[in-house]
Automatic annotation (TrEMBL):
Protein name: Oxidoreductase
Species this chain originates from: Novosphingobium subterraneum
Lineage: Bacteria, Pseudomonadati, Pseudomonadota, Alphaproteobacteria, Sphingomonadales
Residues annotated as domain Oxidoreductase molybdopterin-binding: 87-224
SUPFAM superfamilies reported for this sequence: Oxidoreductase molybdopterin-binding domain (SSF56524)
One Pfam family of this chain: Oxidored_molyb
Domain of life, source organism: Bacteria
Length: 249
């Protein structure tokens, strides 16, 4: 299979998925997975929150002149640094776990898929915020292309970086994963995503606090349960600092 054929296949499929995405509430399949997600994650806070509501979007006039880099700014692994040196030309994002059709995508293929651009405010739990413009592929397109299993409850993001040898990872439920503003961003403020902000791609999950926005995403895994994934808490900070798994804002 040539690269061009592969890309056409993926773009074609994603195009169809985008049409479906706009009708997200009308699709019985998506309604089913959303319902499963809600059941798995019900809590007092979530009961009073509309999980489908959009996060506020801003204009270019609102962009923060400086957007801080937080947490890791350069993954230490030799593999990551080799990808960085070749401008991520041979890098591939893997999508697997509880899906019928696992697949991987190059950065060029990700950029050729349907895109969404949004200007949103990032809120870090440490008490700072910044407004940035993000462009990327809706996560829902990739999950539907992979034919996510009806038994999957969470999406896990495995990252290239670590803190003292412990890998960074994060997870969200299907409600956040299928949300239209949840994208894998490769572009920030109309420039290629800088390494400090998570190159080649980072998650934007706009209804959640900063630590959920995994940078340096290498692999996406659909799972039925978070038990058995690292410490089982659903994320690096959840496992190691008692951060709440549900970080909705
Ligand atoms: N892989 C990875 N993702 C991460 C982090 C990190 O250290 N590693 N830090 C998190 C935190 S706490 C915040 S506030 C944001 C910071 O994103 P920024 O560096 O683009 O500002 O990334 C989040 N995602
Ligand atoms: Mo943060």
């Amino acid at each position: 299979m040539t690269l061009v054929t592969r890309r056409n296949a993926i773009v074609g499929a994603s195009g169809l998925l985008l049409a479906g995405c706009e009708k997200i509430t009308a699709s019985p399949t998506v309604r089913k997975v959303l319902t499963l997600g809600e059941k798995a994650t019900l809590s007092g806070q979530r009961l009073v929150t509309d999980r489908n509501a959009l996060a506020p979007e801003f204009t270019r006039a609102d962009l923060s002149p400086r957007f801080r880099m937080n947490g890791n700014r350069l993954p230490a692994s030799a593999e990551y640094q080799a990808h960085m040196a070749s401008n991520f030309a041979d890098w591939k994002l893997e999508i697997g776990g509880k899906v019928a059709r696992p697949f991987s995508l190059t950065l060029a293929q990700l950029k050729a898929a349907p895109q969404r651009t949004q200007i949103t405010r990032h809120d870090c739990v440490e008490g700072w915020s910044a407004i940035g413009e993000w462009t990327g592929v809706p996560l829902s397109l990739l999950l539907r292309h992979a034919q996510i299993s009806s038994t999957a409850q969470y999406i896990v993001f495995h990252c290239a970086d670590d803190f003292s040898g412990i890998p960074y990872y994060e997870s969200i439920d299907l409600s956040d994963a299928m949300h239209p503003q949840t994208i894998l961003a490769h572009t920030m403020n109309r420039q290629p995503l800088p390494v400090g902000h998570g190159a080649p791609i980072r998650l934007r999950v706009e209804r959640a606090l900063g630590y959920k926005h995994a940078k340096y995403v290498m692999r996406i895994e659909a799972v039925e349960t978070l038990a058995g994934i690292h410490g089982g808490g659903g994320g690096y900070w959840e496992d190691h600092s008692g951060y709440q798994w549900f970080a909705g804002i």
